[in-house]
Structures are given as C-alpha cells and as structure tokens.
Design brief:
Helix content is 46%, strand content 15%. By secondary structure, the chain is an alpha/beta fold.
C-alpha cells in the first residue's frame, strides 16, 4: 500500500466509475480528498464514505468541467480547505454517440470535446499555478486506450482522447523543471456506466472482453490503483507518460 499520509488529492470527475474509485483509493493510501463532479447526492455519499473511515479529511463540490469558473472554484476551494494540493486527477469524461463519424451531430461533437478535452485543460489551467506556487505536485489526466489505438464508431471520442494524450505530453515538457509531473492513464474497457452506455445495443460486453488479451473487462479499482501510483513518489521519474492500463489491448 502506498503511503500518502499528510497529502491532499483533488479528484475531478469523482462521482462515479473510475473517479469515485480513485477518490477512495487516495483515502485508503492516507491522503485527504477533495472530490468534484456532477451529482450532488453521489458526491455527498462519497464524502461521507471517506470521512467514515476516520483517517483522512474529505470534501465535495459539485462542478461542471465545461465551465471554467466551476473548475477555478474547485481548485480554490480545495486549496482553502486543505492548504495545498499535492495530486490532481482530471477524470471527467463522456462517451458520446456510437456509430459512423458522418452520422454524428455538431451537438455530440461539442459535448465530447468540451467535457473530455476542454475539461482537462480547465483543470490544468488552475492546478498548475497552484503547484508552481507550492513547490510542485503530480497530475494525472484520464485518457483511454482509444487515445492510443483508434476505435471505429467512436471516432470523436477517440479523437478527444488522442488530444488528451497530446495535451498531457506537451504540458509535462513545460513544467518538467518545476517539480511537477504530468502523466495520463489510458484505460481499456472498464466496468463503468460510461462503457455500458457507449456500447448499449451495439456491441455485447462479452465480445469486448474477448478482444482483450487478458480476456476480461477491468474494474474501476484497478485503474484507480494505477492513478494513485502515478501520483506517488514510487513514480517520481515518470512524466509525460501514458500508462496503458488495458489488459494488453494496445500491445498489438
């Protein structure tokens, strides 16, 4: 178990799936957790669950990552509550429509790009100045195996995750001499609402599992452990890296 006692983790996109599992994993490692995302009821439930352990502090703020003011408010509130943000995770994402790229609408395109790419940029825009002013930190952006190896019928989603990979790598270069590490995790198929919504009525989950070399879909907790590790001192020499937590899906 990694020991992050005395540190604070900010998890944006924390109310379900990978984000929720990540917030809980940070708490299990001893970090205070400031969680943000959509769904006040789910967020308050997460805050209560973390606090019930009695070991670390927790707080939640509802926020829409497509709104720059919301993300700024989250970073400001996390800093005010815990003093310093040592680790930040930009996890909010949406799946968009399934089907040929020419059949997608402008509304779908804008929603996917605004959440998956603009949302990550908003996080970086306000997390980086805080970390620059406080001696460093670690940031992990949630990309996808679809951001490494394109997937047909989710072209816009795949494009958004390719963009997250590029944004992560370029940002890592910008702050590499400032004791700030910026990495990305690229999950394969994960047993979350996002995956279920993305393929519902189009692809059976058993077919997806069979396409993975390890022969199964991952659980959110497996991705969460990778994210916490990337934010820990155990990954102190990693920056600009995209960790493919995908059961071997992109190896070929």
């Amino acid at each position: 178990m990694l020991d992050l006692s005395g540190r604070t983790a900010l998890v944006i996109g924390a109310t379900e799936g990978i984000g929720r599992a990540t917030a809980l994993a940070f708490a299990a490692a001893g970090a205070n957790v400031f969680a943000a995302g959509l769904g006040a009821e789910r967020g308050r439930s997460l805050e209560t669950e973390i606090r019930s352990g009695g070991r670390v502090g927790a707080a939640f703020m509802e926020a829409d990552v497509t709104r720059e003011a919301d993300v700024k408010a989250v970073v400001d509130a996390a800093a005010a509550r815990f003093g310093r943000i040592h680790a930040a995770v930009n996890n909010a994402g949406t799946e968009g429509g399934f089907g040929p790229v020419q059949d997608q609408t402008s509304e779908v395109f804008d929603r996917i790009i605004n959440v998956n790419l603009r949302g990550v940029w908003h996080g970086l825009k306000y997390q980086l100045p805080h970390m620059l002013a406080h001696g460093g930190g670690a940031i992990v952006n949630t990309a996808s195996s679809a951001g490494i190896q394109p997937i047909a019928n989710v072209a816009i989603y795949s494009a958004s995750k390719h963009a997250v990979v590029g944004l992560t790598k370029a940002t890592a270069l910008e702050v590499a001499r400032s004791n700030i590490r910026v990495n990305a995790v690229a999950p394969g198929p994960v047993n979350t609402g996002l995956l279920h919504r993305m393929v519902a009525g189009h692809v059976d989950l058993s077919v997806i599992a069979e396409s993975v070399p390890m022969g199964r879909i991952s659980e959110p907790e497996e991705i969460a452990r990778a994210i916490v590790w990337l934010c820990s001192d155990a990954a102190s020499y990693l920056t600009g890296h995209v960790l493919a937590a995908d059961g071997g899906l992109t190896v070929g």
